[in-house]
């Protein structure tokens, strides 16, 4: 029986993890990509392995990866791989264990399969568009918190500045993890009530995690409450909010200027 997309992504993610761990805590070579931050020889090695595994298995799929020059050919494909070989590269360089591999397949703009794998922790988050979100095979359930009171949010400290919140800064507990994909997966797991970003987010950082959070029961949109679409000519989302549905609505209310 042919391997389905999710099984293929899981297999590829585990291979990526084995490669990444060969470099982790071993002073890999590092380059600076300017505004896009650092990249290591591990990022390139993982990307090369993913090209071999995924493109060989699905030659008709398009390709969008942080570590591969973009090719407009993907825009003509019904299906496309969207991936970040190592999300949280700064954490990887620092020897922290919260880096991840974020791998997804999107069909006609909609993510249909995705995995976020943390090899140093052996945590495999996975989901399909018509199935449950899982962690190492066990089902996930996002938070059902009723609003901002007592909510624990994953977001950088800068996002809590008053200028971002015309409706008033919400009183929430703030936490942080380096990998955007992992933040989304943690929302799906219910360990955090939500996550938000006001920066434009690359599709490769959010495709897999957004599906995992949504299939676990979280509401996931851009910063304005609009649905996410993938494989865009400029592959970025205008910010990101993933949270328990009631919390998501409350955050959007605070982001909207009060009526005159």
Automatic annotation (TrEMBL):
Pfam families: Inositol_P
SUPFAM superfamilies recorded: Carbohydrate phosphatase
UniProt key word Phosphoprotein: no
UniProt keyword list: Magnesium, Metal-binding
Domain of life: Bacteria
PROSITE patterns in the cross-refs: IMP_2 (PS00630)
Family membership: Belongs to the inositol monophosphatase superfamily.
Record protein name field: 3'(2'),5'-bisphosphate nucleotidase CysQ
